[in-house]
Write a structure and sequence with these properties.
The chain is α+β, with helices and mostly antiparallel strands and 147 residues long. It contains 4 helices and 6 strands, in the order αββαββββαα. The termini are far apart.
């Protein structure tokens, strides 16, 4: 695929994510290959049906989650995106939860995403916010910090 074609495919996938809702998950087939692999700090799923199920489960945990993409760059058949998600996390008693990260998107020949790999700091952006384990992780972070 040429970069302009990948750019158009990336635009479609980004638009899907920025408009993502529980109801719009059914449109995943328009932007994700049947055999997509999705990976983040908590999950790795193979196949569009499992990915759709994971997205629906995400809405159970963070019902009002929203995504915004701020940057993108291309290398071959891969698009790298910088994003921010925000919502209220039920596991933290409905507290606001913001995650900043980046994703690698690799595209199939038909322009749909075949691999989506999320990179974000789960320790700082999730685990450290938990009551008991968070205190321990913050202590460890302070001890190994160079500052």
């Amino acid at each position: 695929m040429s970069e302009p074609t990948i750019a158009a495919s990336a635009d479609a996938y980004i638009a899907f994510y920025e408009g993502l809702s529980r109801a719009s998950v059914v449109a995943l087939d328009t932007v994700a290959a049947d055999d997509i692999v999705f990976t983040d700090p908590f999950n790795q799923v193979h196949g569009r049906d499992r990915y759709a199920a994971l997205l629906l489960k995400m809405f159970d945990a963070v019902p009002d989650i929203r995504f915004a993409v701020s940057h993108r760059a291309f290398a071959g058949d891969t698009c790298f995106i910088r994003w921010r998600s925000a919502g209220t996390l039920k596991a933290l008693g409905g507290a606001p939860w913001v995650v900043e990260g980046m994703s690698e998107l690799r595209f199939a020949p038909d322009g749909r995403v075949r691999e989506h790999i999320d990179h974000w700091d789960a320790a700082a952006q999730f685990y450290e916010r938990l009551p008991v384990i968070g205190a321990v992780l913050r202590l460890i972070r302070r001890r190994v910090s160079a500052h």
